């Protein structure tokens, strides 16, 4: 294959993978592991993420293996089939490099359940209904923001936790600003939606 | 009432600057040891409320209570004594005396209260240490970063071991990471000392450090449920 063809092949493999697969690939790039350790390493590195199920880990390994990105690299002697350890292949390494270099598109379409809810509230009910929702949503966001802040400043907090919490806090803060301006604008918006 | 009175109380507080109304009837309670954030858009009356609670400004109407006593009717001298002994204040910037070192700045409130020089210096050094800036003891404010200055100012506000710390946008002039370090220290020390903190901010991320949020709007406390967070801890 020409380099261009290889790139296209890698690209199509990558675009079929969710980002947790790339995290697993990245962990395997550090050293071969079996599924059990891989799951633990994932949860340990991304403590604020949704924990991966074992089933998901084995399914992903199966898929990565089928695509030639990882390969079985021996078995623990005292174990059953689940103790197969996997190593990253050169193709896996190339796919990982491509993924790392690819800039994520800055969301071209705004899709948010929050936004949809306010719009539908105005469509089927009234400004009060929309305000009640916005207010309750704002409280939930602020509660979560406080929990995450407490987690960050807890004695002995790890930088893994702090940085993941920072990410979530920045997004909650952005939502909170939007919730506030929308509360201020909702009456005008209602007139427009109903016009 | 069966409950003990809140440590800080405002009842229907009204305050104007000439024809400009700043507070239009504010009622709130703050419990001892609580960290509350007073939030709201610029101009909604947060700073005016803080000044009224701290006995710096007198309301035009309404009452300010501190530990069950009504303090807004006290003389300026009596309120000033209360501020020196029971309260600490922290502003956005400009509280440190430029000619004095960090240790001298922090010792100042103790010296004014009649503490001896040696004891005041010892206390100042220990407070600088608690705020993580012990190495700046002999440095003047002009040679410090903004974050270092605010940590020294926090030490100065807490050196008298006040029961209440009033902080008005204490990290407003700092970048996010530096502001977080100042807030992290402030909140940790306040919890250790069981100091009540009234933290004025327009930033939700800063309010995240508090136990509870008091949201203001147009000179009143927003009780519509916009008050964001739940009850006391
Ligand atoms: N010293 C002053 N003289 C005249 N008006 C003032 C003064 N201080 C504040 N105000 C006005 O009072 C209102 C509330 O101000 P302030 O308490 O500083 O609000 P915040 O701290 O929320 O920004 C605003 O309209 C402001 O312009
Ligand atoms: Mg202000």
Automatic annotation (TrEMBL), chain B:
One of its GO terms (molecular function) is ATP binding. Keywords: ATP-binding, Nucleotide-binding, Transport. Pfam families: ABC_tran. The keyword Transmembrane helix does not apply. It comes from the Bacteria. PROSITE patterns: ABC_TRANSPORTER_2. Residues 8-229 form the ABC transporter domain. PANTHER family: ABC TRANSPORTER RELATED, IMPORT ATP-BINDING PROTEIN. This is ATP-binding cassette domain-containing protein.
């Amino acid at each position: 294959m020409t380099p261009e063809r290889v790139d296209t092949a890698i690209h199509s493999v990558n675009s079929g993978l969710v980002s947790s697969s790339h995290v697993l690939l990245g962990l395997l790039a550090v050293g071969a592991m079996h599924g059990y350790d891989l799951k633990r390493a994932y949860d340990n590195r991304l403590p604020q993420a949704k924990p991966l199920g074992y089933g998901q880990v084995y399914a992903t390994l199966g898929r990565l293996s089928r695509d030639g990105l990882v390969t079985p690299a021996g078995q623990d002697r005292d174990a059953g089939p689940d103790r197969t350890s996997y190593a990253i292949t050169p193709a896996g390494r190339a796919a990982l490099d491509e993924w790392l270099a690819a800039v994520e598109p800055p969301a071209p379409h705004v899709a948010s359940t929050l936004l949809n809810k306010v719009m539908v509230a105005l469509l089927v009910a009234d400004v009060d209904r929309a305000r009640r929702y916005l207010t309750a949503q704002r409280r939930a966001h602020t509660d979560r923001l406080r929990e995450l802040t407490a987690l960050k400043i807890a004695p002995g907090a790890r930088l893994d936790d702090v940085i993941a919490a920072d990410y979530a806090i920045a997004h909650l803060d952005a939502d909170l600003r939007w919730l506030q301006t929308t509360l201020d604008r909702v009456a005008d918006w209602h007139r427009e939606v109903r016009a | 009432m069966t409950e003990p009175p809140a440590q800080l109380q405002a009842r229907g507080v009204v305050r104007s600057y000439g024809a400009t109304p700043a507070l239009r009837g504010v009622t709130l309670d703050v419990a001892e040891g609580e960290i509350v954030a007073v939030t709201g858009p610029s101009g909604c009356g947060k700073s005016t409320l803080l000044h009224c609670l701290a006995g710096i400004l007198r309301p035009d109407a309404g009452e300010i209570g501190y530990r069950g006593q009504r303090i807004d009717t006290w003389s300026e001298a009596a309120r000033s004594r209360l501020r020196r002994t029971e309260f600490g204040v922290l502003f956005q910037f400009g509280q440190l005396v430029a000619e004095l070192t960090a240790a001298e700045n922090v010792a100042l409130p103790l010296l004014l209260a009649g503490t001896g020089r040696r004891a005041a210096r010892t206390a100042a050094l220990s407070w600088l240490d608690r705020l993580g800036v012990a190495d700046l003891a002999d440095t003047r404010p002009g040679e410090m970063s903004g974050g270092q200055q605010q940590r020294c100012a926090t030490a100065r506000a807490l050196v008298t071991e006040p029961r209440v710390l009033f902080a008005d946008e204490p990290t407003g002039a700092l970048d996010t990471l530096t502001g977080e370090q100042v807030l992290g220290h402030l909140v940790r020390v306040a919890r250790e000392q069981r100091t009540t903190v009234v933290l004025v901010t327009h930033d939700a991320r800063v309010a995240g450090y508090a136990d509870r949020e008091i949201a203001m709007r147009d000179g009143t406390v927003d009780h519509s449920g916009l008050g964001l967070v739940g009850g006391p801890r």
